[in-house]
Each structure stands twice: as C-alpha cells, then as structure tokens.
Amino acid sequence: MAATAVHQPRSSKTESYVDNKRKDDVRQSNIVAARTVADAIRTSLGPKGMDKMISTASGEVIITNDGATILNKMEVLQPAAKMLVELSKSQDIVAGDGTTTVVVIAGSLLKQCLTLLTNGIHPTVISESLHKVSQKSVDILTAMAVPVELSDRESLIKSASTALNSKVVSQYSTLLAPLAVDAVLSVLDPTKPDLIDLRDVKIVKKLGGTVDDTELVKGLVFDKKVSHSAGGPTRIENAKIAVIQFQISPPKTDIEQSIVVSDYTQMDRILKEERNYILSMIKKIKATGCNVLLIQKSILRDAVTDLSLHYLAKAKILVVKDVERDEIEFITKTLNCLPIANIEHFREEKLGRADCVEEVSLGDGGKIVKITGIKDMGRTTNVLVRGSNQLVLDEAERSLHDALCVIRCLVNKRFLIAGGGAPEIELSRQLGAWAKVLQGMESYCVRSFAEALEVIPYTLAENAGLNPIAIVTELRNRHAQGEINAGINVRKGQITNILEENVVQPLLVSTSAITLATECVRMILKIDDIIMVR
C-alpha cells in the first residue's frame, strides 16, 4: 500500500523567519536613506569644506555650507531621512553650531549599526550600547574641557572665530567675532547670568557696501526712510518717541457698506470733518511733547495719509511708518516705553526718550533711521549687516547667528574644548580602551562605535585635500602618547596642538552633537516597520 502524502502545516519557525526578513529590510532601507542624507553634506564639514548652491522652485538661489540651512532646503521624502533633517534643526536650537558635524556622526554610527545588524546582533543590544557610549562620551569630553570666564574676552573671540572659519564669509571673522561677543555680553543680564535670549540681538540687513561695513549699533536701527513727503524733519534731538498702534487717517466704513455723495456741499463737509478729525489727533499727540512717531503697519487702512503727513510735518514731528507688528515688542523693550493702541491713551509717561533720531544716508542710495542715546535703554542691541549682494548678505546673517549661538553656549556652559577633530579622536581612543574592559556583545558594539567617531578627523583631512589615512593614523599615535589636544591644522596641513592654534569650541557643541546623534540613531534602530496611513 502506497504511503499517502500528508501536507504538513507551515512551521512557526518559517513564519518567524519571513517576518524578520521584512523587519531587516525596513531597518536597512531606513539606514541607507539616512546615510545618503549624511553623505550629501559631509563635504561641507570644516574650514576647507565645500559650499552648496541651492536653487529653490521659486528661482531663489542660496550659497551656504551651514548644515541646518542645506538640510532645511532639501526636499526629503523618506521618513527616516527626515529624522536627520530634524536632528540638524535640534542641534541648531540647542547649540547653534555643529549642525553638519551632528549629521556626519549620525551617518557614521548608522554605518556601523548596519554592520552589527548583518552580524546578527539584536537592535536592542546595539541601542543599549549606544546609550552607554553616549553617557561615557559626555564624561570624557567634560574631563578634556578647559573652564572659561565671561570676562576673558579673548577666549570668547577665539571660540566665535572658530565657528566663523568654516563659513563663506570666513575672511571677515576678525570683524564679526568681536562684534558677536560684544553683542551677546551687552544683552547679558547680571541677575540671570546663565540665560541669554538671542531675540534681544536684532540683525538688520541692508544691501550695499561690503561685510567690512557691518557695525554694532547701541540703540535702534530701521531699514526704512523717514516719511517726509510733506517736508517733515529728518533729524530730531532730545527726542520723545511714541510707538503707536492706531492710524492717523480718517475712519472708514465697514467693508460691506458704502457712502454715495451726490452734493458738493456734502463732499466739502466730509473733507472738513476729515481734516478736523486728523488735526484733533495731532494736537493731542503734540500736547504730550512727542516729536517722533513710530507707526505700526496697518492692514485695514492706511496708517497715515498725505493730509496727516502734512499736518505732522507742520507740527515738526518725525514719522517712521510701516513698523512690523513682530518688531513692536523689541522696540518697546529697547526704548523702555509702552505701545499706545488708542489716541485716548496717549500719555507722556508712555513715551521713550533718546538723544538723537535721524535719517542716515549710507552713500550708495540706501537710507536707514538710527535712534541713539536712548535713556534707560533695555538690554538689547542691533547689528547692521552690510553686503554687496543678497547672497553674501544672507550668508553673513547666518554666520553671525552661528557666532552668537556659540557665545550663548559659553554663557550656558562655561567650558571650552579643542577643535580640529581632537575631541573625536580622543573619544575614539578612550572608548576603544573601555570596550576591552566590557564583556560580550556590548564590548563588540562599543568598539564599532569608537571607530565610527573617527569619521570627523577623516572628513576634515579629506576636505582639506590631505591624505586622510596618514593623518588619522598619526593623530591616533599622538593621542596614544598623551597629547589630548592634538588635532588637524588644515591651514598648515599637519597635526599640531589645536588649543595653542586658538581653534576652540564650546563644550556644549560637542556634547550635544554626540547625545543628539546617538538619540536619533537609537530611534532609527528601533523602527522595524513603516505603516503608511492615507
């Protein structure tokens, strides 16, 4: 009797295998996508890094090597790759600098994770090891750091210069670095020594001149002309300044309504009423001794009309109109005055006082309004940035913002650390030694991550046109001999003591780069499926 073939149900082991294959594929596609983003901006790292030209759909062109700006403008569709864009934004918020570094480190860690996953190590084990590496790295970096005092202006300037050296406007670092230090220290509140709000430093961009013409203004600057079409004053001394949020123009009817005037006498009467209405407002303003008006931009109707400008000119009141709504808070804080929302609330005690308000010609057709010598001025400052074209102007603003953020980091955490790849190679060395003490899979993972951190000195050397393998090998050797501040001097093309070369950065930039990169990589590792919801 022939044996009957019996169909066995598929074993659970086979089902488990198929399921794991899908999870592995999802992890692999996520890691590959994220690494592609990291590789795209890797060439921008360091003072000899390349710049990227970004052309937007609207035809706008941006030239920059700021990691956060490049990634922000890229159209990234893959969800895991978007996480690296968000990672760069996080670093920009926390530290303001190191936005390219954090993405390059994350890309290198992901590369090692892929190797570990291929070797059969479970994602949870890799994730736990990463967490321990992150904590150990922060301890090693803190031990390497040098304390700094805010009174040590030279050290602060060195740190700001290092941040600016990798930018398009690096040749102006000798001007912009001291300017950034002075700007931050001028808004530092002694009662809150660890807190800096960079919204108190307003950057005003004005096309024309060169970056050399950039200046720090102790007072207020408006990128506007004075409204003097009716022959009003352009310079006022001993100014009493009002910031108003109402319109000095005749009231209008509601949008749905209209008035039909068929008689000339009625028309004359309307015009006369309009004149009387405006005149009564200006008399109330003049009665308080106010001689400078800053008028908020109005959407519903004109803030001022030709008629009101004529009467204001007769009253010798200087007018700056179309002040943006979001600038009002900064202006009132600087002038130490209150915004006035209604003519009935116009009081002398709500006015700000300054020695001089004047319209300044910049020599190339542009004009600005400057308010200087403000009485009881708030803790704010203005930086007037100049540039020969819009691309340079925008990049100068971004670079200055990075320099300001670096000084803010030093205010928050008053430690400096060497640059030039020195902290990363020291981390790699010490983590490699620590891996030998650990046991099992953990030791294997830590050793891989220690190797991953060598990507920073390797990329710095590569972008500077040096031999990366020879440089990194020499760097390892110098650190093994105890030279913890030995780093790559890209200008001389050799390894020197980076602290002596004044290439320094805030400790917060390095620690946040490591912690944020490891956090992001751990999150990508834990994803085993992508569910699309429509």
TrEMBL record:
CC terms in the record's Gene Ontology section: cytoplasm
Q: Which PROSITE patterns match?
A: TCP1_1, TCP1_3
Which InterPro entries does this one have? Chap_CCT_delta (IPR012717), Chaperone_TCP-1 (IPR017998), Chaperonin_TCP-1_CS (IPR002194), Cpn60/GroEL/TCP-1 (IPR002423), GroEL-like_apical_dom_sf (IPR027409), GROEL-like_equatorial_sf (IPR027413), TCP-1-like_intermed_sf (IPR027410), TCP-1_chaperonin (IPR053374)
Give the location in the cell. Cytoplasm
Q: Which UniProt keywords apply?
A: ATP-binding, Chaperone, Cytoplasm, Nucleotide-binding
- Region annotation (Disordered) maps to 1-22
- Basic and acidic residues bias locations: 12-22
Q: What Gene Ontology molecular function terms does this protein carry?
A: ATP binding; ATP hydrolysis activity; ATP-dependent protein folding chaperone; unfolded protein binding
Cleavable signal peptide? none
Q: Answer whether the UniProt record assigns the keyword Phosphoprotein to this protein.
A: no
Q: What does this protein do?
A: Molecular chaperone; assists the folding of proteins upon ATP hydrolysis. Known to play a role, in vitro, in the folding of actin and tubulin.
The similarity comment for this entry is: Belongs to the TCP-1 chaperonin family.
**What protein am I looking at?**
T-complex protein 1 subunit delta
Annotated source species = Macleaya cordata (Five-seeded plume-poppy)
Q: What is the lineage of its organism?
A: Eukaryota, Viridiplantae, Streptophyta, Embryophyta, Tracheophyta
